[in-house]
Specification:
The protein is built from 12 helices and 3 strands; from the N terminus they run H-H-H-H-H-H-H-H-H-H-E-H-E-E-H. It is mainly alpha-helical. Among the domains are: 29 residues; 61 residues, no CATH class; 82 residues, Non-ribosomal Peptide Synthetase Peptidyl Carrier Protein, Chain A. It has a 3-stranded antiparallel beta sheet with strand order 1-3-2. It is elongated, with a radius of gyration of 52 Å. It starts with 12 loop residues before the first helix and ends with a helix. InterPro entries: Retrotrans_gag_dom, RTL1-rel. Pfam families: Retrotrans_gag. This is Retrotransposon gag domain-containing protein.
Length: 362
């Protein structure tokens, strides 16, 4: 039997991956070399462009016009620097870049050569991508591409957003939001902008401006700030707490007697029922204190006594014991009474003591 032919060598996957990596490295090195060449070209062209610009610019010095010439004096243009663009606020940067290159009389083709020196961060990476893919054609197309890449969405209706804008904090914040949106809207008349600004203010400020009738947007902004300050001052005045004047009590003579009907501080009360009364009477104890009672007995500390009697039951008398606590100069004490409770033979009569008799002669 004839021998089988040897099978073809199998393709090694590792060798295939290695080949692809080598190709990618070569491509990356090529791109890096192109970028270096482009930077070197820009660096070599920049001095020439500056020299040509300086030579082409007329000498701007102050000079007195001669008597035979009425030509006005030429002014020297001040040195202006265009800040680097990093992807934020693209519309503002485009406006400044246009005026910067127009003031320096830089032709549009040379603007594309100089523009990388005014880019950084994401904007510079994006410009390098455009240059590597040969997407840079004219200056106007570059500005349009920059606005599309970093600017707000073109699907946003800025005019409708401007009409819906309302003041939520201060007039200054509302003014900044209004100016930002109005810069993105072209074609509105001055009257429309004025009415739009007033309609978005707070109701109280809006009513004031309706009476004042401003004729321009600048005047409306100025009046709105003044009205806001006035309303804020009025609110602070009305919200100030009212302080009642403290009434001055008339001075009383020093020799006047204290009032019996004054309201002393609440005193602790101890009630003596009938059983306790009988028990103390049997032991010969004082109703006010725990000492023995004898004729002429005086308690160590004066106390108030309140005897409650019941007309229907003579034996159900209760004694209320009140402990006044520490004595003060404004407290009137009644001397303790005898423990003997003598019931009147006629139950319908009650003992009464007038205030004049209690106070004594004046």
């Amino acid at each position: 039997m004839a021998p089988k032919p040897e099978q073809a060598d199998k393709v090694d996957p590792a060798a295939d991956v290695t080949t692809q990596i080598r190709e990618l490295q070569i491509s990356l090195a090529t791109i890096t070399q192109q970028q270096d060449d482009f930077k070197a070209f820009l660096a070599s062209q920049l001095p020439l462009l500056i020299k040509e610009h300086v030579n082409a610019r007329p000498v701007t010095t102050f000079s007195k016009p001669s008597s035979s010439s009425d030509r006005p004096p030429t002014l020297k243009i001040p040195k202006i620097t265009l800040y680097s663009f990093d992807g934020k606020e693209p519309l503002d940067w485009i406006f400044k870049a246009q005026n910067y290159f127009d003031l320096s009389n830089t032709p549009p083709p040379q603007r594309l050569i100089l523009i990388p020196f005014f880019l950084q961060g994401p904007a510079l990476s994006w410009f390098k991508w455009l240059h590597s893919n040969h997407l840079l054609t004219t200056w106007e197309e570059f500005l349009h591409a920059l606005e599309v890449r970093f600017g707000p969405s073109s699907f946003t209706n800025h005019e409708a957003t401007l009409y819906k804008l309302h003041q939520t904090s201060t007039v200054i914040d509302y003014q900044q939001q209004f100016e930002t949106l109005s810069n993105r809207v072209v074609g509105l008349s001055h009257t429309s902008l004025l009415n739009c600004f007033i309609s978005g203010l707070r109701k109280d400020i809006q009513h004031e401006l309706t009476i004042l009738k401003p004729s321009s947007l600048t005047q409306a902004i100025d009046l709105a700030k003044l009205v806001e300050a006035k309303i804020s001052a009025q609110n602070k005045l009305f919200l100030r707490p009212f302080k009642r004047p403290t009434p001055t009590s008339p001075s009383t003579p020093s020799n006047s007697q204290p009032s019996v009907l004054g309201s002393p501080p609440p005193l602790p009360i101890r009630r003596l029922n009938t059983t306790e009364q009988l028990e103390r009477r049997s032991k010969g104890l004082c109703f006010n204190c725990d000492e023995k009672f004898h004729p002429g007995h005086r308690c160590a500390r004066k106390q108030f006594l309140l005897f409650l009697t019941d007309d229907t039951d003579a034996d159900g008398d209760d004694v209320v014991h009140v402990d006044p606590g520490p004595q003060s100069s404004d407290t009137v004490l009644i001397d303790p009474v005898h423990e003997e409770i003598i019931h009147s033979p006629t139950s319908g009569e009650h003992f009464q003591l007038s205030q004049a008799a209690l106070m004594g002669p004046p």
